[in-house]
Amino acid sequence: MVWGIEIQEKFRDDLDRCCDQFSIADFFKMAPHISNILNDNEFSIVANPPFSLALEFIKACMNIGAKYIAMLLRIDFLGSKKRAAFHNANPLTQLLVLGQRPSFTGKGTDSYNYAWFVYDKDKAPRAPIVI
What we know:
The chain is an alpha/beta fold and about 130 residues long. About 25% of the residues lie in helices and about 25% in strands.
């Protein structure tokens, strides 16, 4: 089952096409209820959070018990004093670097490089970075 959560109403039609169920809601308000909604089954979270809230999104996903987390983020997410302790305590299972910059608007790309930051609580971190 694919269940989507999106805060922006304008994406309702997209969610209707790709999700079995979806909510137009604030993820942080829904997070405490997600495992109950999914009947405590194992679940994965795949997201493209706002960069300024990425750390909070990942922590929330971990706190609610997501087995697998994949976040599309700027590679710059790896570097910062603020996030260093988190990265050391929660090493990535894998970092999948995108070979081409994505276009989020359909009107070209921005100047950032992106990667999928993958956390799998059942697997040990891997050294390789995949491009």
